[in-house]
Write a structure and sequence with these properties.
With 58 residues, the chain is an all-alpha fold.
């Protein structure tokens, strides 16, 4: 199964890590983003680092 492959694990984070990463990134940019919006993004993007980065950038 692909989810158990080391490469896949390196590209994905669990929901807590994803949430913390986005929240910290927004804090570094002095942006106030509602917690609910961050939670929805984490659920929708499923912990995939590239999508989380793109979301935070945009």
């Amino acid at each position: 199964m692909i989810q158990n492959h080391p490469f896949w694990k390196a590209l994905c984070r669990n929901q807590a890590e994803s949430y913390d990463s986005l929240r910290k990134g927004f804090e570094e940019l002095n942006l106030e983003v509602p917690e609910e919006e961050i939670r929805e993004a984490v659920e929708e993007l499923d912990g995939i680092v590239g999508w989380l980065t793109l979301y935070g950038y945009n």
